[in-house]
Design brief:
- The chain is globular, with a radius of gyration of 18 Å.
- It is mainly α and 230 residues long.
- The chain has one domain: Glycerol uptake facilitator protein.
- The model has no long low-confidence stretch (mean pLDDT 90).
- Helix 6 packs antiparallel against helix 7 and helix 6 packs across helix 10.
């Protein structure tokens, strides 16, 4: 039952991240206002934290300091699976629910945006190192935002501001969130037309998000346990 609950919670979290990602894309294309889109994206992560849902990118860093790491890894894998399913489904729902046939300008700009997310080995295409580095920075900011939100001795307003600030930084800077990437590639049909490259891109983004979060978690753990003497 606990495993099923983790999976369902992960799906719900994936849907919220997917909705935030698509809202960001719509604000960027239709309103030419990525700042508003970044704020709406932040609402997704805020609701996940508020509801206590399981988001892999927000939880992976907390493996540092866990006593029962094996059990936690199993939970991480379940929530990751749920996140991927939720984001994929919301991308497909939006793709099928919006009349794209009469809006070629949106289709072209959306395809341009989502195509640029995929790793290719062609000249001028996105390379693995770029995606790995961008996703690592994103993972660091997602973990930091969740870490601040969970901090007990921090004022609720500062928790909220810290969370939204971290999201705004990685979204506006173009750093890659693996779960949002799934929604983008489902929306742009790359997970159908370019499934090999799309899956490779998602895998790299997951690895990068994990590395960034774990590195920040290790740094914070070191600073808390090794106070600098005056």
């Amino acid at each position: 039952m606990k495993a099923f609950k983790t999976l369902v919670s992960g799906i719900f979290a994936g849907v919220l991240i997917g909705c935030g990602a698509i809202a960001f894309l719509l604000c960027r294309i239709y309103l030419n206002n990525p700042v508003l889109g970044a704020f709406i994206f932040g609402i997704g992560l805020f609701l996940i934290c508020l509801l206590g849902l399981f988001l892999y990118t927000g939880q992976i860093g907390f493996i540092i300091g866990k006593k029962h790491k094996k059990q936690f890894v199993i939970e991480l894998l379940l929530m990751l699976l749920g996140n991927l399913v939720g984001a994929f489904l919301i991308g497909l729902v939006f793709r099928s629910g919006v009349r794209l046939d009469n809006n070629w300008e949106f289709v072209n700009r959306m395809k341009e945006f989502t195509d640029a997310k995929v790793v290719t080995f062609a000249d001028g295409g996105r390379n693995i190192l770029t995606l790995l580095s961008f996703s690592s920075v994103c993972g660091a900011f997602v973990y930091l935002g969740v870490y601040l939100f969970k901090k007990e001795n921090l004022h609720p307003l500062l928790k909220t501001v810290g969370l939204f600030a971290c999201v705004a930084i990685f979204v506006m800077s173009g750093f890659e969130h693996s779960i949002a990437l799934v929604a983008y590639l489902a929306l742009g049909w790359q997970l159908i037309d370019m499934i090999g490259f799309a899956l490779l891109s998602i895998l790299i983004a997951i690895i990068g998000n994990s590395l960034g979060a774990i590195l920040v978690a290790l740094a914070l753990d070191f600073l808390q346990n090794h106070k600098v003497s005056e």
